Amino acid sequence: MPALVPLLDAGHVHLSGDDRAGCDAVVSALLLRAAGRAEPGAVRLIGYDPEHLGGGLAGFAPLGTAGLLTFVGPGGLGALLDDLVEQIRRINETVLAGEHGSLRELASATGRRPEPWRVAVLLGGDELNRHERGQLERVVRAGAACGVHLVVRGIPLPDDPTVTRVVAGASGALIGGPAGLPVRLDPPPPATLVTETCREIAARVNAGPPPTPFADLLPPPEQMWRENSAGGLTAPIGEGPQGRPVRLTLGDYPPHALIGGPSGTGKTNLIFAWIGALAARYSPSELEFYLLDFKEGVSFARFAQGRRDPSWLPHMRLVGINVNTDREFGLALLRFLTEELRRRADAAKKHEVTKLAELRAVDPTGHWPRIVAVVDEFQMLLAGRDVVAREAADLLEDLARRGRSQGIHLVLASQDVRGIEALWGRPALVAQFTLRIALPKALRILAERNDAAQSLPRWHAVVNAESGMVEGNEVARIPSASDWETWSGLQHRLWRMRPADAAPARLFDGDAIPRLAEAPDYRALEAPADGKAPRNPVALLGEIIDVQSRSAALRLPRAPGRNLAVLGTRVDEACAVLDAAARSLARQHPPGTARFSIACLDADADPIARALYEDLADDAAWYDEETVGELMAETADGLGGAGGAHYLLLFAVDAAAGTLAARAGRRTGLEQLRRILHDGPERRTHVLAWWRGVARMRADLGGPAARTDQIGAWVALDAHGGELGASLYPGTGGPDWYPRPWRGLFFDRAVHRTGQVIIPYGPSR
């Protein structure tokens, strides 16, 4: 029959007798079986071996690499016993807390064990002093209930029901003391088995404990959307060391959060977990999310409606992905939030209150949810010293300072230390982010001398609501929330609960090219019901990089300068701007009320221009290099008469200069174009032309000193800001514009103070 010795959650073992090898075999077997059968990391050993200086536990040394084995040197027994007594006191007060009699009872009731087993192996030493004897007695008396155990040889233990005594002699061993049960001891476990087992345990522990179940963050289905956000937002983010939930709060204090951690430490997963915990507790009328991701990737696209999954998170109002080159979109979000802050502040002033909770109390019919705006890799928004970075920093500071009172909360995340350093020059801004969340190896998130994040295992985070000060540290084990199946289950449940009037979040993908036919502003266009031409037709040029899905619109009333110049050498993008403008104008004109003269002078532009001509059918006329001179002459000569709207769509118009000179004399041909530009708009004749360079346009308008008033609006593609100059743009030096693919800078003298970045619509066919 096997002879069993109760140890973990049961008691202590005292070894004695003249068979030293037998005692060593018992120690090795006990420790190997305890550590090997428990979950990796659940057993921690403390060795005290003053005679052999740790040699008695040498086979277990690999556990030290995972922090599962520590040695106490000679003279350190008192401190070791003091620490064990302190652990017992802490567990009794904060873990068991009067609710359970032991850790075993707690684990049985909850299914979790929040504390490891601690086994102190004491192998001889000098006689104990009075204090050490007292501490040893306390450990013997109260340790087993708290998972603190002793395996002792060469030190007397007091009599206690929890102590099992093993006496090893030459003829065998006795369990229970000199009069106990005789047993034949097993041979000591092979040294290689001990070492290999300990290495495997250490490797699994170093890989980190598994995450907690995502379901642990969620309330029962019948309790979802029951919370009220008037006073703030509170939800668990993970499990603390004692097995209790660690909660995050956004409200008056703390108002905003800063998240940091190197790549691969779980920043995206943490954001998913936090969003899920909040979305399950607060309905869309209580909470709205705006999410912006400056790194490349589409992880956050699943919050919005997609081709693979038609569901969306009902709380999500905006998802921006792949915006690493579109800093203007981040700026647009900050402007939007600032405008919402102003709207809420005006409402609070009207009702003579100061906080969101008070506003909701006096205006219960208003729509005042709390807003959480998450900006991942936010340092991209503050990079550089251009106008975007300066305005973004100013808006961030204003939102961080005043947003708390109106329920607008910022969550900024970064995996790069530079992201945090971008804030240090603005102490007033940093001070508002009192909630700090540091993932493993995160730098500069917590206070300067707070290095708690450096030793965190995977799936863990330091949560600190005291601006990173050490006393505010709380360690949380974060669940796995970002994989498709885990998140999809929650999102589908919440999607089915969505209000009847809920609409999908706006998804902005910086890598996607929008389509004109899908643009809300284009679908809203229609011809007047009376069959007459519109008084102020609008040409749509592209999608504005903005929070709302709006089109850049050029109004073409009968007013001087209402012409458009597209500037740059990118054929597809230039053609896309003219194509969208023509199609949107045609949509507003009943058949026969407008003429579209299409002149294509670049062979590469021919497919798009030809498709436009064919789709406009009877209202369009085609011109090429041979006939463009006739178009100019006929149009210029006809400006004095009455007629309907006439739109000249000139693809690569600068290529016509030679043709115009050959047909009617260079000066005459270009003079006709200039006259059309100058006099045409007041007679409902508008030029929408593409020049393949700013200098080429200036030459066609009369040279470097020529006036450009007749070009009331322009879209710059791969033309740099410095090329545009003061004649086309207010101020000196031109706009801060750095070209990039499928982006343009739109400026309309009549409405803009600064340029507007747009995305040309993709091909219509």
Give an overview in words.
The chain has 765 residues and is of the alpha/beta class. The protein has 20 helices and 29 strands. The strands form four sheets. The chain has a ten-stranded mixed beta sheet with strand order 21-20-29-28-27-22-26-25-23-24, sandwiched between helices. It has a nine-stranded mixed beta sheet with strand order 18-17-16-11-15-14-12-13-19, sandwiched between helices. Helix 6 (267-281) packs parallel to helix 12, helix 14 runs parallel beside helix 15 (606-616) and helix 16 (628-637) crosses helix 18 (666-679). The chain is elongated, with a radius of gyration of 37 Å. The model is unreliable at 663-667 (pLDDT under 50).
Q: Can you describe this structure in just a few lines?
A:
With 765 residues, the chain is of the alpha/beta class. Mean pLDDT is 89; it is low at 663-667.
CA(first)-CA(last) distance: 84 Å
Report helical residue fraction: 25-40%
User: What's the pLDDT, averaged over the residues?
Assistant: 89
Task: Kindly estimate the percentage of residues that lie in beta strands according to DSSP.
Answer: 15-25%
Rg on CA atoms, Å: 37 Å
Estimated structural class: alpha/beta
Biggest sheet overview: 10 strands, mixed
